[in-house]
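Subject — a protein and its fold
Encoding — discrete vocabulary of local shapes:
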Amino acid sequence: RKEVYAVLSYIHTLHNFTYLATVYACGLRLQEGLHLEVSDIDKDRMLIHVHRGKGAIDRYVPLPKETLNLLRRYWMSHRNPRLIFPALGRGHQLGTVSETPMAVSSVQGALRQARASAGITKRRVTIHTFRHSYATHLLESGVNIRVIQKYLGHAQLETTMIYLHLTQKGQEDAFSIINDLMKGFNHECH
């Protein structure tokens, strides 16, 4: 989590920060985030409808209140009637309404610079890493793996398992639980 927050703290443009924070907060794939539409936000139920995902699997993911507030703030800066993350064009010209989403290269470049500024030397920190971190952090917090599978939009549990390598915290939690289960279980045999 520290690495995610460290990277985000070095993102200096509202559009890139909002995009990356949303990808992490909702476990979205790169293209799912870029193609989010205003109509995908269900502010009453605090959900995002992901319906242009990989494998055409429709799903709803929880939308944290802070993320909704961030999305609103960002949307107010451009007011595109359809896209949450529209292409901004050179100089962020007001009055132009983009029909295409923000460029992949924009967020990838911002992430690369932020990673370097945060002193993170792992070369494989990508936008997909935010999705992987989302899944790992949910698992470490005790969320059921089937729920995580649903949020990620995986048809097969095995796909979700790839994301959720055994973490150090998971090992420590399991060790602690096993110790607790065995407390007072030292029956002497005669």
